[in-house]
Write a structure and sequence with these properties.
Layout: H1 8-20, E1 23-25, E2 37-39, H2 41-60, E3 65-67, H3 76-82, H4 84-87, E4 89-94, E5 101-103, E6 131-134, E7 138-140, E8 150-152, H5 158-163, H6 165-172, E9 178-187, E10 202-212, H7 215-222, H8 243-260, E11 268-272, E12 284-292, E13 295-304, H9 308-317, E14 323-324, H10 326-334, H11 337-357, H12 362-374, E15 380-381, E16 384-391, H13 392-403, E17 404-410, E18 416-422, E19 433-437, H14 443-456, E20 462-464, H15 470-480, E21 484-488, E22 502-507, E23 513-517, H16 518-529
Parallel strand pairs: 3-9, 19-20, 19-21
Antiparallel strand pairs: 1-2, 4-5, 4-6, 7-8, 9-10, 10-16, 11-12, 12-13, 13-16, 14-15, 17-18, 21-22, 22-23
C-alpha cells in the first residue's frame, strides 16, 4: 500500500516557523518534549499582539466586562465541583506491536511512533481495550506527598472566574448582565499531541464568562423574552434579551473579532452542536472552525452553559452564588398571581432537573428547587452564563496559516525565485515597520535612518536593517510579515530640495511605494497598525 503524502503546506509552515523565529520545539537541544512549544522573537510578538487585541476588544472597549488574573494551581475541590476530577478524560489504547499510546477515538489522525508518515489505523498490531485517561496534570502542594496534598495544574481558565464570581461582582460595581474575562496558561496531559501547536499539553486560553439573567427573570422584569428573528448579529443588547439572543450576539461578536484581525469569514465555519453532542448542562454551543491544512478544526467554542457552573460551586463550597436584583423584586410584586405561578414553576422545574442530574435524591432536589424558586419573589437568582472560549495557540497557528503565501518572481537573467510573504493583518503583525538606510556605507543616511527608527519606537515595534541590498532587506521583512518598510534615501537628505525630510514607504502585499513626510509618519502608520 502506498504511504500517504505528507502535507506539504504544513511542512513549509513548520519550517518557516523554526527558520524565522515564530515557534521552536521546546527543549530542542535535549531532543524536545512532545506537546510543548516555545515562541521565538516573532512568535512572541505575534502572540502578545493577539492577546492584547482580545483584551482591548473584550474588556477595555466595553462597560460590562471586568478582568481577572487567577493562579494556575487552585483548591482541588474546584475541579471536583466542575466535574474534571471524575469525567475529564479521553479513551486511551495501547498498541502491543509498536508500543504506542493513542486516543481510541482518533486512530485515523494519529501518526505511528515507528513510522510518522503512517497512521495508526494501518498498524495491525493488537490493541488493548480503551480505558479512561484523566487529562489533568497532578502535582502536590507542601512538603509531604500524600493524598491530602494533591493539587492540579488547571486544565482551563474558566473555573477561577466562577470561583471568584462574587468577589468580582462586589468589587467591580458591575450588575448582571456582565462578564469576567481572563487569559492565561492551561495544561492538559493529551494522550497524543498532534498537528504542530494545534493540540498541545501546555497552551493559553482567552475566556469570557458573560453572566446573564435567567429567562424567567427577564420575563418578570420586561414582560417578554426576545429571541432571534434570524441569522446575523442581533444588534445592541436590550433588557429583554433571553439566553438565545445573548448566545447569538456573542457568536457574531467573536466572528467580527476574527475578521478584524485578518481571518476572512470565508476561512471560518460555524458548527452548531447537535443536541446529542452537547454537554449535559449546555443549552447550545457553536464551534467557530478554521480551515487548517490538516483539516477544518475548532478555534473557539461559544456555549450557553445555563446556571450549572455557579450552582456546582454553590453546592460544593456551601457559599451562595445568588445575586440580588432590586428590579426583579419590585417587578415580581406587580405581577398577577397566575404569572408569578407560571414563572415560579418554570424556574423550579429547571432547578430540579439540574439537581437530579447532579445526583441529589428526588425529595431533596424538589425541596431545594422550591426554595430556589421562592427566592425570585425576594429578588434572588443564580445567573446563567454564555462562555466564549478561545485557544490562543490555535489562533496563532491559524493566523500563520492564513498569512502564508508564496510568490515566484523572475529576475533580469530569467531565473525564477520563489519566496514567502507573510500577509499578516497590520494589527497582529509581529513587527509593524522596517526602517532601512538605502546604503549602510553612507553615514548621513544611517544617521537619519536611526533618527526615524527612534521616532517610531515609542509607538510600535520597529526593525532596523542595514545589511545587504535593499531588495534583500525588503524580502526578509516580507517573510517576517512586516506590513510596511520605510527607506531613507538621498532625497530624504535634500538631493531634491522639495523631498527633503520625506521617506519612501513600501507596502508589503503589493510592493507599492509612496512618499511621506517624516513628520506625518507616526500618525499615518498608527492609523493602519492599530
Amino acid at each position: 500500500m502506498a504511504e500517504p503524502k505528507v502535507n506539504e503546506l504544513m511542512e513549509k509552515i513548520v519550517s518557516l516557523c523554526k527558520r524565522r523565529g515564530f515557534v521552536y520545539q521546546s527543549s530542542e537541544i535535549y531532543g524536545g518534549i512532545n506537546g510543548f512549544w516555545d515562541y521565538g522573537p516573532l512568535g512572541a510578538e505575534l502572540k502578545r499582539n493577539v492577546k492584547e487585541l482580545w483584551w482591548r476588544r473584550i474588556v477595555h472597549e466595553r462597560e460590562d466586562v471586568a478582568g481577572l488574573e487567577a493562579t494556575i494551581i487552585m483548591a482541588p475541590q474546584i475541579w471536583k465541583a466542575s466535574g474534571h476530577v471524575d469525567t475529564f478524560s479521553d479513551p486511551m489504547i495501547d498498541c502491543k506491536t509498536c508500543k504506542g499510546r493513542f486516543r481510541a477515538d482518533q486512530l485515523n489522525e494519529t501518526p505511528c511512533p515507528q513510522k510518522p508518515s503512517k497512521m495508526v489505523s494501518e498498524c495491525h498490531g493488537e490493541k488493548t481495550e480503551p480505558r479512561a485517561f484523566n487529562l489533568m496534570f497532578e502535582t502536590h502542594v507542601g512538603p509531604v506527598k500524600d493524598d491530602s496534598s494533591i493539587a492540579y495544574l488547571r486544565p482551563e481558565t474558566a473555573q477561577a472566574i466562577f470561583a471568584q464570581f462574587k468577589n468580582v461582582l462586589e468589587t467591580s460595581r458591575q450588575r448582571v448582565p456582565f462578564g469576567i474575562a481572563q487569559t492565561g496558561k492551561a495544561f492538559r496531559n493529551e494522550v497524543t499531541p498532534r498537528n504542530f501547536t494545534f493540540r498541545s499539553r501546555e497552551f493559553e486560553q482567552m475566556e469570557l464568562e458573560f453572566f446573564i439573567k435567567p429567562d424567567e427573570v427577564v420575563e418578570a422584569i420586561t414582560g417578554t423574552v426576545a429571541t432571534p428573528a434570524g441569522p446575523g448579529h442581533p444588534g445592541e443588547p436590550q433588557p429583554n434579551w433571553g439566553w438565545q439572543m445573548w448566545h447569538q450576539y456573542w457568536v457574531e461578536e467573536r466572528i467580527r473579532f476574527y475578521e478584524g484581525i485578518g481571518l476572512p469569514r470565508a476561512s471560518l465555519e460555524e458548527y452548531w452542536q447537535k443536541p446529542e453532542e452537547l454537554a449535559h448542562y449546555a443549552r447550545a454551543c457553536v464551534d467557530i472552525l478554521f480551515k487548517f491544512p490538516f483539516g477544518t478544526q475548532e478555534l473557539e467554542g461559544i456555549a450557553a452553559r445555563s446556571d450549572f457552573d455557579l450552582s456546582q460551586h454553590q453546592r460544593f463550597s456551601g457559599k451562595a452564588m445568588t445575586v440580588f436584583d432590586e428590579e426583579l423584586k419590585a417587578a415580581w410584586a406587580r405581577l398577577p398571581k397566575e404569572k408569578q405561578d407560571e414563572l415560579w414553576r418554570r424556574y423550579c422545574e429547571a432547578r430540579q432537573r439540574y439537581l437530579l442530574k447532579m445526583g441529589e435524591e428526588p425529595e431533596k432536589a424538589a425541596a431545594l428547587a422550591r426554595a430556589d424558586a421562592d427566592g425570585l419573589a425576594k429578588g434572588w437568582y443564580i445567573p446563567h452564563v454564555i462562555e466564549p472560549s478561545a485557544g490562543v495557540d490555535r489562533l496563532i497557528l491559524a493566523l500563520i496559516t492564513n498569512a502564508f503565501s508564496e510568490v515566484t518572481e523572475t529576475d533580469a537573467k530569467g531565473r525564477n525565485e520563489t519566496r514567502v510573504i507573510m500577509r499578516f493583518h497590520p494589527r497582529v503583525a509581529p513587527t509593524k515597520v522596517g526602517v532601512f538606510p538605502l546604503l549602510k556605507n553612507k553615514p548621513e543616511l544611517v544617521k537619519k535612518a536611526l533618527e526615524v527608527r527612534d521616532l517610531l519606537r515609542p509607538w510600535m515595534t520597529v526593525f532596523y536593517d542595514e545589511g545587504g541590498s535593499i531588495g534583500r532587506r525588503y524580502a526578509r521583512q516580507d517573510e517576517a510579515g512586516t506590513p510596511f518598510g520605510v527607506t531613507i534615501d538621498f532625497d530624504t537628505l535634500g538631493e531634491k530640495p522639495e523631498l527633503r525630510d520625506t521617506v519612501t514607504v513600501r507596502h508589503r502585499d503589493d510592493g507599492h511605494q509612496e512618499r511621506l513626510a517624516i513628520k506625518d509618519l507616526v500618525g499615518w502608520l498608527l492609523e493602519r497598525v492599530r
